[in-house]
């Protein structure tokens, strides 16, 4: 008998949703000591499946039919009190965002002790808490136990969450995108930790993720979900390397390759369009009445050269200063030192008015397609706004906007609609059209695809690749995802703590990295050992 | 727009409030038709209880029609409420926008200035201002506006602080739009909902303040107002309860109506707050 058996699970959405059921006819089994990855894009119902198992469905969502048998008992039919006793003790869950999942006012040691106490094991807390923190490889467990969550890094918080989930040695652990909010190097450590603990204790793990790289890294078995249904299920090696369902194939084909070698090198002129030298930006945090303020160097002595027609990737983890660097170039942030030469003119000392002509030549695509468009302005207005500001007649600008919509593959009717009527990928196209309306020479793309699902991500990347060929764009491409950088960039610069530690042609940096940090980053790319089969057709499944 | 009305109508209290408010506005507009002649003129014998001598709500100590006083008083209350709120919004939105958009020392200076006004009890300040500038409808409006703008500044500043770092505002900056254009076309329209809700509640407070001022005898001597009616009926309340009760009821219902409408607007403008807990 399996540890967990979900059969025929159907959860209804409230009326007026985009489909009648959030999940429909879900059949899943999970054995002890096994990691089952549930993969799917946003809205596929993967989190809903996990929440239904924990009986944590939001009000308004009802299980219509099916059963969830855990250790032979149907969880859906247990009385609330019995279910409460199981939660935490036999079934545990870790969430995507460890900051919001921990109580910010309680020391983390007390939170873990509380988890023990709730299930009547409070007497052991003093001994068990440091043990648990040690088991998740946290240094100096006693000091960590006395810290509040805000003192810990994202990775440390997620480790605390895992320690809390494992406190009572549950038989089943549900992990809902536990590494999505973390940097790649931290992600790798957490994945290793989950793997290790699961093997040591024989826990069954249901691992929810959207990332096929993570699946390749950790899964024993895989279930692929699409619009509330499981379309394919099987052992990891089989699903990853011989996917049968067209949707699985499409998803895997959309996974960025991470191998620059496959792409032919593009010819690029040697004319320098942008040159940064010694750019420095420091943020000062006020110290209050007592104590001194803190100076945080966001960008320190950055040197970069960008040639006409080239795409330069700036990669790094969160807080590495890559976004600040991009914002320095476009004057959303004013650097205190250094030269930003654009076509021979130093942009840094220019006044707001002197900057105006350069606003046409340098444009930006933002990260969050939901926040980067004014919700109260129609799409046509949003695209035409820039040129109108710079004195283009209204009619001309609107006609141009219509052309641009077709360039980014949106229907002309989109002109008079508002941003909320569009999906994330469509909004990002609108953002690209808005930037292109100014006919820029240099396009800065700040994580333009990181908020998008993998299949949409592939489409937007393809659009950007196509546009830069057709319009001869030069791009400064900021990303945290090395696989994406490998896909689109001619050269990359790797940033760590505000400094550019390595730069060079993409292929060279990825194939033979020189700086230890670059090596660590490349080592952490999830699913590195797995070559998606659609592009290469080679069976190289990582067998762990 | 129809979706907005539907959400507004879902709150029953708000509909009741809106109906009440329309009645009060109608009463103010049609006062000269309903009660021709001045409300200050004697209309019957003094101290007539409601219903007698053809006086719907009775007469006061000088034989003036209480009903006529209430109808004309509605004009004063609504004018004072609307105009003083408009003036307070003008001051509050302007200061809050500058503080929230510019930040830094401008923000510090404006917020200290705002706090200075908030530390003075607002009613005392209003009395003082009206007393200095001699009671008239203009001085009352100015006094109420001066004491009621600080909350607007704080709300607008908070909205601007959170909106100015949104990517669409940065995008507007990157397009080269001027700061004034960004504030007026990008930030302000997105900050309107809380301002509208606040305005409806401020109107109610302004009406109360005006009534309190004229109760103390600081009302415009040429205009009949609800506060004045209550004030003049105060000394004879055991003899002629209707002189104080009906104007009091008028104030109560108008303020209640404005509060209900404010709540309905808040629900209709922020539908997400209402649907809390439902499916995302």
Automatic annotation (TrEMBL), chain A:
Sequence similarity: Belongs to the ABC transporter superfamily.
Membrane topology qualifier: Peripheral membrane protein
Matches recorded under SUPFAM superfamilies: P-loop containing nucleoside triphosphate hydrolases
Lineage: Bacteria, Pseudomonadati, Pseudomonadota, Alphaproteobacteria, Acetobacterales
One Pfam family here: oligo_HPY
GO molecular function terms noted in the UniProt entry: ATP binding; ATP hydrolysis activity
Residue span(s) of domain ABC transporter: 4-252, 274-522
Record-given protein name: ABC transporter ATP-binding protein
Superkingdom: Bacteria
InterPro entries, per the entry: AAA+_ATPase, ABC_Ni/Peptide_Import, ABC_transporter-like_ATP-bd, ABC_transporter-like_CS, Oligopep_ABC_C, P-loop_NTPase
PROSITE patterns: ABC_TRANSPORTER_1, ABC_TRANSPORTER_2
Automatic annotation (TrEMBL), chain B:
TM regions (residue ranges): 12-35, 78-102, 123-147, 195-218, 239-261
Domain ABC transmembrane type-1: 74-262
Membrane topology: Multi-pass membrane protein
Keyword terms, alphabetized: Cell membrane, Membrane, Peptide transport, Protein transport, Transmembrane, Transmembrane helix, Transport
GO cellular component terms attached to this protein's record: plasma membrane
SUPFAM superfamilies named in the record: MetI-like (SSF161098)
Cited Pfam families: BPD_transp_1 (PF00528), OppC_N (PF12911)
Domain of life, source organism: Bacteria
Biological processes, Gene Ontology terms: peptide transport; protein transport; transmembrane transport
UniProt similarity note: Belongs to the binding-protein-dependent transport system permease family.
Protein name: ABC transporter permease
Taxonomic path: Bacteria, Pseudomonadati, Pseudomonadota, Alphaproteobacteria, Acetobacterales
